[in-house]
UniProtKB/TrEMBL annotation:
Keywords: Membrane, Transmembrane, Transmembrane helix. The lineage of its organism: Bacteria, Bacillati, Actinomycetota, Actinomycetes, Streptosporangiales. It is a multi-pass membrane protein. It comes from the Bacteria. Pfam families: Na_Ca_ex. Its main location: membrane. Residues 37-189, 224-365 form the Sodium/calcium exchanger membrane region domain. This is Calcium:proton antiporter. The chain crosses the membrane at residues 12-30, 36-55, 67-91, 103-124, 136-157, 169-187, 220-239, 259-277, 289-313, 319-341, 348-366. It is found in: Membrane. The keyword Transmembrane applies.
Length: 368
C-alpha cells in the first residue's frame, strides 16, 4: 500500500512540477535573483528535466520510433531557437555570434557527448552496441552536410568580410538547410522508417509499437505531449534565468565568455541526454543515435532558417563561420562518427573515442 502511495506521489510530481516551474519562471523572468532563489530555480530546473524525460517516453511509447525521438528533438530545438532569436533581438550587436556558438555547442554535445555516453552504457551492459548502420549513416551524412554548409563555408566565402554569409548566401543556406531537414524527416518517418528502428544482434528490426500490447490512452498521450512542451519551456527558460549566475561564476573563475553558452546548451540538452542513456540501457541504441544525430540536425536545420528571417530586422552582420580550432574539432567529430557508424556495431573503444573528443571540446572551451 505504501509503495502504491509512493508511485502516486511521483506521478503527481511529474504533472505538477512542469506547471510550477513555468509559473515560477514567469515570476523570476527579468529579475535579479538572490542566491537562495537561484538554488530553488536550479532544483525546479532539475525537476522539469526529469518530468520532460518521463512525458517524452510516454509519447514515444504511444507513437513508437522514430516518431518519439523526433518529437523530443524538434520540441527542444524549436524552444531553443526561440530563445536564441529573442536574445539576439534584445541584445542587438552583442550577440552576433550567438547562433553560431549555440549550434556548434549543440552539435558537439549531441554527436560526441550523447552518442558517446549512450554507446558507453550499451557496451558496458551488453558488451556490443548494435544499431542500424544504414539509417544512422544517412543521419550522420545529413548532419555533416548541414554543419559544413552553415558553419564552415562562411569562414571561406569572400563576398562579405569576416566569417559571414552575404544576404543571398544566407538565404540559400537557410532554404537548403530546411529542405534537407524536411527530406530527412520524410525519409525517417515515412519512406524508410524501418532503417531507424532498433535492431537485435542478429539484425532483426524491433518495432516497439508492435512489441507492446498495452499503450497509453489517447487522453494520457495528449496530456503528456502538452506537459512535455511545458516542461521544455521551463527547462530552456530557467536555463536563461540562471544564466546571470552562471556568467558571474564564469567571470569569478576567469573563464572565457563562450563557456556560458556551453553550460546553457548542456542544461537545455539534459532531457535528450537522459532519454538517450535510458534507451541505451534497454539495448535500444538506435533510439539513442536517433536522438543524438536528430538533435544536431534539427539544431542546424531549424536555427539557420529562423535567423535568416530574423536578420531582416537585426542590425550588424551575423557571424556564422567557425574558427580554425572549431573546424578541426568538427572534422574530427565527423570522421570518428563515420568510423563508428559504418559497421553498425560499437564497442567500449568507440564510446571512449567519442567521449575523449567531447572532453577536448569542453577543455578547449575553457582553455582555448
Amino acid at each position: 500500500m505504501s509503495r502504491l502511495r509512493d508511485v502516486q506521489w511521483i506521478d503527481a510530481l511529474r504533472y505538477a512540477v512542469p506547471v510550477l516551474a513555468v509559473a515560477t519562471l514567469g515570476l523570476a523572468w527579468g529579475r535579479v535573483l538572490p542566491p537562495a532563489v537561484a538554488v530553488i530555480l536550479a532544483l525546479l530546473l532539475a525537476g522539469a528535466v526529469l518530468s520532460a524525460v518521463h512525458h517524452a517516453e510516454v509519447v514515444a511509447h504511444r507513437v513508437g520510433e522514430p516518431f518519439g525521438s523526433l518529437v523530443l528533438a524538434v520540441a527542444v530545438t524549436v524552444i531553443e531557437v526561440g530563445l536564441i532569436v529573442s536574445m539576439m533581438v534584445s541584445a542587438g550587436g552583442e550577440t552576433l555570434s550567438l547562433a553560431r556558438d549555440t549550434v556548434f555547442a549543440a552539435v558537439m554535445i549531441t554527436c560526441n557527448g550523447i552518442v558517446g555516453l549512450s554507446l558507453l552504457v550499451a557496451a558496458l551492459r551488453h558488451r556490443v552496441a548494435v544499431f542500424n548502420a544504414g539509417g544512422t549513416g544517412s543521419a550522420l551524412a545529413t548532419v555533416a552536410t548541414l554543419a559544413t554548409m552553415c558553419l564552415v563555408l562562411p569562414a571561406f566565402t569572400t563576398t562579405t568580410p569576416g566569417p559571414a554569409f552575404s544576404p543571398p548566401q544566407l538565404w540559400f543556406a537557410a532554404v537548403a538547410s530546411l529542405a534537407l531537414y524536411v527530406l530527412f524527416v520524410v525519409t525517417q518517418t515515412i519512406r524508410h522508417r524501418q532503417a531507424f528502428l532498433p535492431v537485435t544482434e542478429e539484425g532483426e528490426v524491433i518495432d516497439d509499437v508492435e512489441e507492446h500490447e498495452t499503450q497509453p490512452s489517447t487522453r494520457l498521450t495528449a496530456g503528456s505531449l502538452a506537459l512535455l512542451v511545458v516542461a521544455l519551456v521551463a527547462v530552456v527558460g530557467l536555463a536563461k534565468v540562471e544564466s546571470p549566475a552562471i556568467e558571474a561564476a564564469v567571470r569569478a573563475a576567469r573563464l572565457p565568455q563562450s563557456v556560458v553558452g556551453v553550460v546553457i546548451a548542456l542544461l537545455v540538452l539534459l532531457p535528450e541526454t537522459i532519454t538517450a542513456v535510458r534507451a541505451a540501457r534497454r539495448g535500444r541504441v538506435q533510439i539513442s543515435l536517433n536522438l543524438g544525430f536528430g538533435s544536431a540536425m534539427a539544431s542546424i536545420g531549424l536555427t539557420i532558417p529562423t535567423i535568416a528571417i530574423a536578420s531582416t530586422w537585426l542590425s550588424g552582420t551575423l557571424l556564422l563561420g567557425l574558427g580554425p580550432m572549431q573546424i578541426v574539432l568538427l572534422a574530427l567529430t565527423i570522421a570518428v562518427a563515420t568510423l563508428t557508424v559504418v559497421t553498425g556495431r560499437a564497442t567500449l573503444l568507440h564510446a571512449g573515442v567519442h567521449l575523449v573528443v567531447f572532453a577536448a571540446f569542453l577543455f578547449l572551451a575553457v582553455s582555448p
